[in-house]
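for the recovery benchmark. tokens below, seq after
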């Protein structure tokens, strides 16, 4: 390893410590929420990039939410819902196990809501000792019918984690994609290998989701998007894997690959910490 590489590596390690500190501070304060109306019965309880988006389906028999942010955002979510409906929350679907999407589970369960997730997401929550474990798990596909409305859940395979579920609202032609698709830099950044994620399998998982019938996407984080934007994101996942594979074959160093991911795919320290070793190992 050249000396400049060593220096860069040390700099990266120090920056990493600072970033982890910043990251763990997310969830210590309630986020400022606002509600976006997508359809007559479908809303997004939105905030700046962290925590994740919450999608709310309103029916005569109650409310179904996709993702419930951090524990500390619970009161904020209820306050936003109160502006729209007086019906109780009956179901929460967790798109995956991360705390910025599932942190509100225990409080909603205490209000009699049932939490639904993939079997894999529940296993990850058990391992991480998270509160509010899902009451119901799905393997591949399920429907929830509430107030005469149909909500379809699909678990296709690995992407951001091994347990990512997408949720289709067929009548509204809207897909809640979770972190399988986040809208910001529009490139896959957070591949959670310790949570079963996979860059190599991500494009085929996205291809399956893109075969569903919808126009609008609620990304895991960020503003609303179109199906075309989600398809473009899939192209970026393929480009990322191809670039790492090419550099692996050219025997480039880990530091060089990290630099490429920083410059071409805007990876920050947190993303490198979670995903660098995994993607190098995987994309041979
Ligand atoms: Zn996540």
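predicted aa per position
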């Amino acid at each position: 390893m050249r000396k400049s590489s060593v220096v860069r590596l040390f700099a990266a390690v120090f920056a990493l410590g600072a970033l982890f500190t910043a990251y763990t501070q997310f969830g210590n304060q309630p986020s400022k929420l606002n509600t976006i109306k997508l359809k007559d019965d479908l809303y997004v309880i939105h905030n700046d990039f962290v925590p994740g988006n919450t999608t709310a389906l309103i029916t005569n028999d109650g409310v179904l939410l996709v993702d419930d942010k951090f524990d500390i955002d619970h009161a904020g979510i209820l306050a936003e819902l109160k502006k729209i409906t007086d019906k109780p929350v009956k179901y929460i679907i967790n798109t995956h196990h991360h705390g910025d999407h599932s942190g509100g589970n225990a409080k909603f369960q205490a209000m009699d809501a049932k939490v639904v997730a993939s079997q894999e997401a529940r296993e990850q929550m058990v391992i991480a000792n998270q509160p509010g474990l899902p009451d119901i798990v799905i393997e591949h596909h399920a429907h929830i019918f509430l107030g005469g409305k149909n909500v379809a859940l699909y678990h296709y395979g690995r992407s951001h984690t091994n347990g990512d579920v997408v949720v289709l609202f067929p009548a509204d032609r809207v897909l809640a994609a979770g972190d399988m698709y986040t809208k910001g830099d529009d490139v896959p950044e957070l591949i959670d290998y310790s949570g079963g994620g996979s860059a190599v399998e991500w494009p085929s998982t996205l291809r399956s989701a893109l075969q569903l019938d919808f126009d609008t996407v609620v990304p895991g984080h960020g503003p609303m998007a179109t199906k075309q934007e989600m398809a473009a994101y899939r192209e970026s996942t393929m480009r990322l894997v191809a670039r790492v594979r090419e550099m692996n074959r050219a025997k480039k160093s880990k530091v060089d690959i990290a630099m490429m991911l920083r410059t071409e795919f805007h990876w920050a320290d947190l993303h490198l910490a979670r995903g660098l070793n995994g993607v190098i190992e995987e994309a041979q």
